[in-house]
Amino acid sequence: MLTVDFDRLGLRPGERVLDMGAGGGRHAFEMYRRGADVVAFDMDADELAGVLEIFGAMKENGEVPAGASADIKQGDALELPFADGEFDRIVAAEVLEHIHADVDAIKELIRVLRPGGTLAISVPRWLPEVINWRLSDDYHNAAGGHIRIYTDHELVDKVTKGGRFNDGTPGEAMVYEGKDYAHGLHAPYWWIKCAVGVENDTHPLAKAYHKLLVWEIMKQPKTLQYAGKVLDPLIGKSMVLYFRKPGTP
């Protein structure tokens, strides 16, 4: 279930790419399939161990082009253990809404991106997220949960100015290149969950809608693909913003 459009990101085989906040690795796996040199970065060692195992299975099963490589790295988003300008493309999907010092994380993403490189950031979309917060305190009060709701204007402003810092010093400027919305079918599921109880997986309505989403992800029926395309711009749960770092490699 991908959120980022890698064609829009400009990903090409052989490029060095970072999946910051990789989690279970869904975007890292797709970039690996496309022939990139991938680093899956996260704080969670257990998640990364699972990602590394799947990287190995993909290679053994011949799912990746010759020359593609993939590895994992554990660490803190506020102090990325990479050199300046190390990556051609960066993905930060559904992670900034969890980080208190988001502007510092943005500054680090920009630092490790090469001049001319591109960055895709996805966060929960404002309206679907507001509904979730109002329906359930448990949705966002859980440990490690969402701590803010972004508007597109706020996030664009923070990234294009390289982050807003307490001392007023701007970071490196980025160029905003547009946005998409994704996962329109998923927003109603979370509204249901928040209404009946975030941990209440046995509620009949939540169970029924979950089965629908599993069907969408696993079988990708054309009817649900079409429904998703219609709903994405209206109630898509995720907002994806694309940026480019000025300059040439």
UniProtKB/TrEMBL annotation:
It comes from Nocardioides lianchengensis. Residues 18-121 form the Methyltransferase type domain. This is Methyltransferase domain-containing protein. Keywords: Methyltransferase, Transferase. One of its GO terms (biological process) is methylation. GO terms for molecular function: S-adenosylmethionine-dependent methyltransferase activity. The keyword Methyltransferase applies. The keyword Methyltransferase applies. PANTHER family: MALONYL-[ACYL-CARRIER PROTEIN] O-METHYLTRANSFERASE, METHYLTRANSFERASE. CDD domains: AdoMet_MTases. It holds the Pfam family Methyltransf_11.
